[in-house]
What does this fold into?
Amino acid sequence: MRTPSKVTTILATFLFVSPATAREFADPDTVLDLIHERADLLGPDGAKTAQAQVAYEYGRHPDTASARMTACLDAVEAAHVTTQLPAPRTAVSR
It folds into this structure.
């Protein structure tokens, strides 16, 4: 089993804290919409807030939290999320 990337893990965290059920993770477009909705709702510090909520759920329900996170990671990987990298900067000579 390979380790998911940091981006995949963060996106899965947003998906984890969404109100959606694992059945809704089958459609990649729905997965992306759920991630965007949750990220918008949580705001600029959303990743930290989502991570805190995930930690809380692991403390309260470790048996179900693990299975949900696995489903979230699988759904994000199945959605083939691509990230935009900024173009390389060119030096300006003066």
Notes: The helical segments are 6-16, 28-42, 46-60, 62-78.
